[in-house]
Amino acid sequence: MLEAVANGLLTGAVYGLVALGLTLVYGVLHIINFAHGALLTMAMYAAWVCWAVFGLDPYVAILPLVPIFFAVGYAVQRFVIMPASQGDDNNILLVTLGLSIVLENAMLAIFRSDTLSVQVPYAMEVIEAGPMLLSFPRVVGFGVTLVVALVLFLVLTRTDTGRAMRAVAKERTGAALVGIDVRHVYAVTFAIGCACLAISACLLLPSFYVNPRVGNAFVLVAFTIVVLGGMGSVPGALLGGLFIGVVESLSGLYLGDSLGQLGIFVIFILVLLFRPTGLFGARA
Amino acid sequence: MKDRQLSLILAFAGIAALVPLFVTAGTWLNFAVFTLILCLAAQGWNILGGYSGQYSFGHAAFFGTTAYLTAVLQTRYGISPYAAFAIGIAAAAAVGWVIGFLSFRSGLKGSYFALVTLAFAEVFRVLANASEITGGAAGTLIKLDVRPENFQFASRGTFFWVVLGMVVLAMLLTRALERSRLGAQMVAVRENEDAARALGVDALRVKLAAIALSAAMTGAAGGLYAQYFLYLDATIAYGTWISVEALLAPIVGGAGTVFGPVVGSIVLHSLSEFTKSLVGRIPGIDLVIFGIMLILVVRFPPRNIPGLIRRWRGTK
């Protein structure tokens, strides 16, 4: 039981990281990015290719993948989502949905539906912490997530780019009036979201598998976290991630694997119906 | 103008009805039936998404409900397939009404509505996958027993006509709706909900009527699917694929029009067959095309194929 909670917390941290990208994009751009899951799948395949083709350890692969996915995210927002959306909510839904369909099925066409995984010596290693046995990749995932969250927090509060992002999130027109390039800020935000995904993918890979649909499993979890933590709230995403990790771990323990996912969806629906601003969020 | 619409519907019905007389190859008829079933699902989505402006990402919830009820009621309880089909459609409408009541009462719209419908469909999928009555992960098989009273026909052509009849019925229903008071209120809610309410339109009631009707149509498609392919599992019945199919065709063909879903599904599925014959059966390639079509249609006004044709004729 205690072990389940601890392992849930560790998994939840990585969920939180996935959700972090989503919530950041929502907070600044006010769009719901349905392609988030497909982009995560893409990042996981990229990390797998790094391992299978270039022999890079997934943790080392973070270094090349973060800039690559930053660039991918920037380009996707600038050249696909922005020109197509024209500011209409329903259009953005459709474009990101279209994007996710294209990415997911392109990966299905390239890698086929086989489930792939990496073999690393530490995948099964455990760390003894008092009475509990904790899986090594999850502990690493937890640690890296905390570091990334800290870096992101510093970027948002201490740099000009971060200030511009917060300004755009609060008051888009005003930000544009004082000379902030809103379109650039949008693209940078989206790029940071994608970079977070690249890190999540590298953290997940040692203990997880990849197939073209793997992102779907995560994206609903991520949406749940984002809604739970309050749309656009960064600390909300992390806390929500930890919470959902524990819920999933416990409902898996008591309900079995097939019904275990149900807990998350039920929470998701209840939160959407009764508290769409999230448990921590203040704005609608 | 309206009479032209009616004659177009009848012309479509007449021409399409000839298909089984000329096309006898099983694979092509299969393709035609499948396309028409998805067209019906799309016509359902069009009522809620196209006319009332509420974009659902979870129409699988309705498709699967009728599909499972049609299959399970006849295999487990020996109810006539036709009665099971009718009960299934009513149940889908009820499910739609309940989902609508919960979400619209909470004021969910836009992306939030899309998300909540997606989540409902996923809940159904997980439940159907785990429950015993639906056959769990192994799925449900309808016993092959070809008799008209079993809703199973010796020739694929007969089934084609049945499905075509439903599609044409849905077109006529949509047309009637378009000309009715309710239809006008739906469009008003889509264009500006606050303004519609200020003019005394009961927006909640209108949206509930829309989602129930929409769910019934998409549900009917699910029942026909079960009856034609005689096999269901949770991923087929409640999978995201059908939610996506249901929304894609109206968007591409023109949402909020009688012909939109029909044009959209025929174009999309012909395109996907064409691609398959061109590059071979690479899994996923047809959906890549669908996705690109979706992005392009949203990216470049006039947003749909009929609009494109109109503009092209206008500039000429």
Automatic annotation (TrEMBL), chain A:
The keyword Nucleotidyltransferase does not apply. Its main location: membrane. It is found in: Cell membrane. The chain crosses the membrane at residues 6-27, 34-54, 60-80, 92-112, 132-156, 185-208, 214-231, 262-282. The keyword Transport applies. GO terms for biological process: amino acid transport. It is a multi-pass membrane protein. GO terms for cellular component: plasma membrane. Keywords: Amino-acid transport, Cell membrane, Membrane, Transmembrane, Transmembrane helix, Transport. One of its GO terms (molecular function) is transmembrane transporter activity. Belongs to the binding-protein-dependent transport system permease family. LivHM subfamily. This is Amino acid/amide ABC transporter membrane protein 1, HAAT family (TC 3.A.1.4.-).
Automatic annotation (TrEMBL), chain B:
It is found in: Cell membrane. The keyword Ribonucleoprotein does not apply. It comes from the Bacteria. Its main location: membrane. Keywords: Cell membrane, Membrane, Transmembrane, Transmembrane helix. GO terms for molecular function: branched-chain amino acid transmembrane transporter activity. GO terms for cellular component: plasma membrane. It is a multi-pass membrane protein. The chain crosses the membrane at residues 7-25, 31-48, 55-73, 79-104, 158-177, 208-228, 248-271, 278-298. PANTHER family: HIGH-AFFINITY BRANCHED-CHAIN AMINO ACID TRANSPORT PROTEIN BRAE, HIGH-AFFINITY BRANCHED-CHAIN AMINO ACID TRANSPORT SYSTEM PERMEASE. This is Amino acid/amide ABC transporter membrane protein 2, HAAT family (TC 3.A.1.4.-). It comes from Falsiroseomonas stagni DSM 19981.
